[in-house]
Write a structure and sequence with these properties.
The chain is an alpha+beta fold. 28% of the residues lie in helices and 29% in strands. The mean pLDDT is 93.
Length: 161
């Protein structure tokens, strides 16, 4: 059971207010961190699909995908931690693990719990915070996995209405 209640976070999951595709990230990452996430995905049994352009390929080692030429198309890894809940990882740089989620898929307690479990699994594996910024507002996280408390916490307060 997660400590946050849906009513406490629903504001931050409103696509009309936050944008439908917030950025989720793990700062201060490395190739080894990326590989740890790839290993976690493989071990978890989550459905996933790796692609480069239109080509669907087996999931490579992090070192291989992050050492591609600078002009190569950015690969993506689609991960479904549950049916109808999708996270899309993009391999922009070794220094930050980043992925998108669609807030329209994360409505309600059950899907919010899936999302929190996903953030928690990544954060625990890496021993690092996992932060969610509103779409287009990079660097201003509203919630995330806190390593010290070992749970997903609010990092911003919704406006008083």
């Amino acid at each position: 059971m997660f400590e946050l209640l849906w009513d406490d976070v629903a504001y931050f999951f409103d696509p009309d207010l936050m944008g439908s595709l917030p950025d989720v990230r793990v700062p201060d990452a490395s190739v080894e961190g990326w590989q740890a996430v790839l290993d976690l995905i493989g071990e978890s049994g989550w459905k996933c699909q790796y692609s480069e352009g239109d080509a669907v390929l087996p999931v490579p080692r992090a070192e291989a995908v992050l050492s591609r030429p600078a002009d190569a198309e950015c690969p993506e890894l689609r991960v479904w931690p549950a049916d109808e809940v999708l996270a899309i990882f993009r391999f922009h740089a070794a220094e930050e693990i980043d992925f998108d989620v669609d807030l329209r898929e994360l409505q309600g307690r059950e899907r919010f719990d899936v999302f929190c479990g996903f953030l928690r699994a990544i954060g625990r594996r890496l021993g690092k915070p996992v932060l969610m910024d509103p779409e287009g507002d990079y660097g201003h996280p509203v919630l995330g996995f806190d390593v010290g408390s070992d749970r997903v916490v609010l990092l911003a307060e919704p406006p008083v209405t």
